[in-house]
Amino acid sequence: MWNYEKRLQYPVNITQTNPQIAQVIISQFGGPDGELSASMRYLSQRYTIPYREVAGLLTDIGTEELAHMEIVCSIIYQLTKDLTPEEIKASGFDKYYVDHTLALWPQAAGGIPFNACEFQSKGDPITDLMEDMAAEQKARSTYENILRLVKDPEVADPIRYLREREVVHFQRFGEGLRITQEHLDSKNFYAFNPAFDCPRN
Amino acid sequence: MRGNQMEQVKLFQWINMVSFAVNDIVLYLDTHPTDQDALAYFHHFREVRMKALKEYEENFGPLTLDTTKPEHMWLWSTQPMPWEGGYC
Question: Global pTM?
Answer without folding.
Answer: 0.96
